[in-house]
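tokens incoming
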């Protein structure tokens, strides 16, 4: 029995698989990042919703390679510049008052002594909550993406 092998076809198939693998890895990372972002949004106690609405997931090309993809979950510092104060806590030096409409404002009046405002972390607990499920989230997203790529975007029902 004679077996023939088309090396060019095999190599081009492997190249296509490598491109698919990177796409699948990107999908997996984005899915875990989205789960973490959603978990953080759900834990933020805020009247305005500004901080929660500023959370995002972004691909991080500076730390990603051909074999590792990295995503960042953070908040838009222009939209919610106070995010770090909530996440880590801070010293308050000015008097705050509540307006009749329920909003809180900081006045220019100084407190007699700085007051520690405890942290109400949202990203760190979100990471801890998602970590045990991260592999399952990634595998499910990667499986869906790989099926899309290998079936040419169909469900296999054609």
């Amino acid at each position: 029995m004679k077996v023939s092998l088309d090396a060019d076809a095999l190599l081009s198939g492997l190249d296509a698989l490598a491109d698919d693998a990177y796409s699948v890895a990107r999908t997996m990372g984005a899915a875990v990042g989205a789960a973490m972002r959603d978990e953080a949004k759900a834990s933020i106690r805020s009247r305005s919703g500004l901080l929660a609405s500023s959370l995002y997931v972004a691909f991080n090309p500076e730390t990603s390679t051909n074999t590792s993809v990295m995503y960042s979950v953070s908040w838009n510092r222009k939209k919610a510049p106070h995010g770090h104060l909530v996440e880590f806590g801070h010293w308050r030096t000015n008097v705050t008052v509540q307006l009749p409409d329920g909003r809180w404002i900081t006045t220019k009046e100084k407190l007699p002594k700085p007051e520690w405002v405890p942290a109400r972390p949202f990203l760190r607990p979100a990471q801890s909550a998602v970590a045990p499920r991260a592999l399952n989230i990634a595998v499910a997203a990667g499986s869906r993406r790989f099926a899309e790529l290998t079936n040419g975007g169909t469900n296999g029902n054609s």
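note: The chain has a mean pLDDT of 86.
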